Amino acid sequence: NSAADILLVQEAGSIPVSAVYTGTVVQPVGVGIPIDEFAWNLGTASRPNQVFIYYSRVDVGANRVNLAIVSRRRADEVIVLPPPTTASRPIIGIRLGNDVFFSVHALANGGTDAPAIVENVHRFFQNRPEISWFIGGDFNREPNSLLWALEPTVRSRVDIVSPSGATQNSGGTLDYGVAGNSATTSLCSSCHCCSSHAGKYALTDHI
């Protein structure tokens, strides 16, 4: 089975009509956009294949570039960090045991807020050394550019996990992941990265 256990979506449209709202909503203090949880059965009634969708409608206008996380396991905790700038999107994540996965979409003006996104996640977990975290998304800047824009103490504690090829038609690599643990010198991770530029992903796509 080649299906993914976690799908991080940065350009999500509307929720699939067959997804069922669970009634769980996370509304963090200081972050205006709530996170809603949905259960979505990809199988049948007799052979269910359920996943959970964590959805943040940050694009209240066009409803095109919302943030979402799709998980085969129900989240133990939903984490929402405030946007690093007034123009930025919130940083949304879910915790599964001691692993946390974030879906992020940096600003289109060269990803100027991307370093702050990574640094904010790092700081959030400084007192939780048991947690390993992964930030996946559209950083709107090349991996090496992001890495060297980070504070040295953060740079030494993260690994960039990027695909082998370009993630946009012009040849740039803007969609990738950052893995880290705020209590160790580095974290080696392997991940299959998919791009929202080479082929747009939506919540209605197969996982």
From TrEMBL:
SUPFAM superfamilies assigned: DNase I-like
GO molecular function: catalytic activity
Gene3D superfamilies: Endonuclease/exonuclease/phosphatase
Domain Endonuclease/exonuclease/phosphatase, first and last residues per copy: 3-181
NCBIfam families in UniProt: PRK15251.1 (NF011787)
Name assigned to this protein: Cytolethal distending toxin B
Naturally occurring in which organism (per UniProt): Campylobacter hyointestinalis
Top-level taxonomy: Bacteria, Pseudomonadati, Campylobacterota, Epsilonproteobacteria, Campylobacterales
